[in-house]
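Regression test case RT-17, inverse folding.

Input:
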């Protein structure tokens, strides 16, 4: 076990980092540029992580060799081995550097020492479930293959509905006008832009679907219902994974589920309730909106992987989260 941990939360826009002592005090915090290896490349991602770790250690006045480094980086799932190898060869922390998905930060922020699941629903969607020391991914395999419940899928289905209404295959829907307002032109006249700007633009149309549904549009309501059901399906799979191999009388009595991402946050509690309405009674999922800063999750995961005791992590968390400078 190291004297200090460095927790990093990285994405396509910025990378946040903290250095924390065993008493939970934040000794240094910095935010730098993007580190998603799918956006900046593996070499540049490793360079950002390495430089941030070094800056944090210098700012805190400690040796980097006395720190365990954990980085939860978006896009890192297919780059974990490469990033970790690059960092271990460059950072003087033998065996003390690990990289994983940024979803692990969310899990550890809300579930540092217990089993449960998290769903993120923004431009994309995915579910992660923690069982003991293991973390499993369910769904969210990218917008080309598996993005049900995401802002992208909601937007794409709305565009399809508007086009079907326009050419006579579908019924009229308020989505036609709302999407035209959002795009600045009718959907059928926006195809070049939609194909050029892709998933980000399409996902940005999802608020129009929620507005149309609230105003009573049946097509919009059906789209949201399908996507809520798809997220509930992820949670049913998460429950099966959590209970896998357990005799029925030893299974958990419940599964805490934390929701995050723009779709969940901007449509709470209605979206939570829509998902819950599709969860069968034999899946005891308790859904709530994530409330703890993910940078705490990065630090907590570093502590857990470095072998800190649950009591030490709990105490560190109470100190960390009481810091007025920590807010998301």
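Golden output:
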């Amino acid at each position: 076990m190291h004297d200090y941990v460095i927790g990093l939360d990285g994405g396509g826009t910025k990378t946040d980092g903290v250095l924390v002592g065993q008493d939970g005090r934040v000794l240094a915090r910095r935010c730098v540029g993007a580190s998603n290896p799918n956006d900046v490349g593996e070499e540049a991602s490793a360079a950002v992580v390495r430089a941030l770790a070094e800056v944090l250690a210098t700012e805190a006045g400690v040796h980097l060799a006395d720190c365990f480094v954990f980085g939860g980086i978006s896009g890192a799932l297919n780059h974990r081995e490469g990033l970790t190898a690059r960092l271990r060869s460059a950072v003087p922390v033998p065996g003390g550097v690990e990289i994983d998905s940024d979803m692990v930060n969310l899990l550890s922020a809300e579930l540092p020492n217990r089993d449960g699941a998290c769903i993120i629903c923004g431009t994309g969607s995915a579910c992660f479930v923690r069982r003991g020391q293991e973390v499993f991914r369910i769904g969210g395999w990218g917008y080309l293959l598996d993005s049900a419940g995401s802002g992208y899928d909601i937007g794409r289905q709305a565009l399809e509905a508007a086009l079907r209404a326009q050419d006579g295959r579908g019924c009229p829907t308020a989505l036609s006008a709302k999407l035209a307002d959002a795009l600045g032109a009718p959907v059928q006249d926006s195809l070049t832009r939609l194909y050029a700007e892709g998933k980000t633009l399409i996902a940005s149309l999802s608020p129009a679907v929620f507005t149309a549904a609230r105003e009573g549009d049946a097509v919009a309501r059906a789209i949201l219902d399908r996507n809520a059901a798809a997220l509930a399906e992820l949670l049913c799979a998460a429950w099966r994974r959590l209970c896998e191999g357990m005799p029925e009388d030893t299974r958990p009595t419940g599964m805490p589920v934390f929701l995050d991402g723009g779709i969940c946050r901007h449509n709470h509690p209605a979206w939570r309730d829509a998902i819950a309405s599709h969860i069968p009674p034999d899946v005891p999922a308790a859904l709530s909106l994530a409330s703890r800063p993910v940078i705490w999750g990065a630090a907590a995961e570093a502590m857990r992987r470095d072998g800190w005791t649950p009591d030490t992590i709990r105490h560190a968390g109470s100190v960390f989260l009481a810091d007025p400078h920590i807010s998301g």
